[in-house]
Amino acid sequence: MNLLESLEHLLYNVVSVATFVLEAISVLCIMVGLVKTTQLWLQLQRHYRGKMFPFNQVRLAFGSWLALALEFQLGADILATTITPTNQDLIRLGMVAVIRTFLNYFLGKEMETELALERERLEQERMAAESLG
Questions:
Q1: How would residue 28 be classed by pLDDT, with cut points 50, 70 and 90?
Q2: Greatest C-alpha distance within the chain
Q3: Which of 5, 14, 52, 97 is most buried, by CB atoms within 10 Å?
Q4: Which of 114, 39, 30, 24 is nearest to 75 (CA)?
C-alpha cells in the first residue's frame, strides 16, 4: 500500500469517527432538549395554574434544541460527503441545510416577537405600579 492509499484510509477512518461523534451529539441535544423542555413545562404548569399557559415559550425552548441538533447533523453530513459524495448524500445534505435554515429563521422571528411581548408586559406592569404608588 502506498502513502496516498494509507492517507486516504486514515482520512476515511477519521471522518467516519467524527461523523459518528457529531451524529451522537445531535441525538444528545435532542434528548437534553426534551428533558429541559419537560422541566420547563412542569415549572410553568405550577406557576400558571388557571392562567393563560405560555405554550410558545415551551415550543421555542424545544425548537432551539432542535436547531442545535440540526447544526451538528449538518456538520456530520458535510463530513460524510467529503469521503463518499453520492447523490443521495448530497440531497440529504441539502435537505438538512434547508430545514435548518428555515427553522433558525422562524425561531429567530418568534423569539423576537416573544421578547417584544415580554418587554411590553413588563412596561405595562411598571406603569401600573407607578400609577398605584
A1: very high
A2: 85
A3: 97
A4: 24
Question: What is the rounded distance in angstroms from the CA atom of residue 6 to the CA atom of residue 71?
Answer: 31
> CA 98, CA 96: separation in Å to the nearest integer?
5
pLDDT at 47: 82
Q: How far apart are CA 81 and CA 95, in angstroms?
A: 13
Query: Mean pLDDT for the chain?
Result: 87
Residue type, 89: D
